[in-house]
Amino acid sequence: MKVRKNPLDLKYNIIIVDDHKMFLDGLLSIFNSEDQYVVLKSSTKAENILQYLKIYSDKVIDLVITDVNMPGIDGIELNRIIKEKYPKTKTLVVSMLNDGEVIDTLMQNGVNGYVSKNAEKKELLLAIETILSGEKYFSKEIKEVYLKNKFSNKQVQKINLTQREIDVITLIAKEHTTNEIAEILFLSKHTVESYRKNIIRKLNVRNLAGLTKFALKMKYIQN
């Protein structure tokens, strides 16, 4: 993708993708009143955006604005592909999804910004202006979720479970009964109960739902 030749050119080319047509139309109306931005392409599907980028690879695309959860290629994968194939193009995620793991993945893949769909127009334009100036922008809400997730991950890393405890928590998360776990692991029912209580104590959770959440986080089982 070519570099902008004229540094004094205040027009920025933007692409928008969001599977919610009403929100997409709302963004378009905002940019219609902002002279410095030109929306080259908008779509409800990331696949269409990637096709456009491939066909018009000679165009300067300054910013791609995307949602996270979309059918087909989602915002996480779209961001990854853009950063890999079109590294000069900035990316901004605008989404209702405030998931620490998702935010962390996007950051690792070089996303330039993330704001909530609840953000006011003023903050959205500030985020865009900041990103196009060469800096990154993450709203206060997103930063808090990200830091909370980081802290949680550090706490998890401090927890040491034995292999047998991992076996037990994995089977619990898969909704096996105590009797079934005892049979699978060749343990007594009493021993399985002891393991369960010890795991709950180690993880500082209150119930089986807490155990399952931990098992998912550690990828002992898949969603």
Instruction: Bin the strand percentage.
Output: 5-15%
Query: What pattern of helices and strands is seen along the backbone?
Result: EHEHEHEHEHEHHHHH
Quick one: how many beta strands?
A: 6
Would you tell me the structural class of the helices and strands? alpha/beta
Distance between the termini: 37 Å
Low-confidence stretches: none
**Average pLDDT for all residues:** 86
Major β-sheet annotation = 6 strands, parallel
| Oligomerization status of the protein chains | single chain
Q: What is the count of DSSP helices, taking H or I runs of 4+ residues? A: 10
* Strands ordered across the widest β-sheet: 2-1-3-4-5-6
Q: How would the global form be characterised?
A: elongated
State the helicity in percent bands: 40-55%
List keywords for this structure.
single chain, six-stranded parallel sheet, 223 residues, alpha/beta, elongated
Polypeptide structure, described:
The chain has helices spanning 21-32, 46-55, 75-85, 100-108, 121-132, 140-157, 163-173, 178-185, 189-203, 208-217, and strands spanning 12-17, 37-43, 63-66, 90-95, 113-116, 137-138. It contains ten helices and six strands; from the N terminus they run βαβαβαβαβαβααααα. It has 223 residues and is an alpha/beta fold. It has a six-stranded parallel beta sheet with strand order 2-1-3-4-5-6, with helices on both faces. The model has no long low-confidence stretch (mean pLDDT 86).
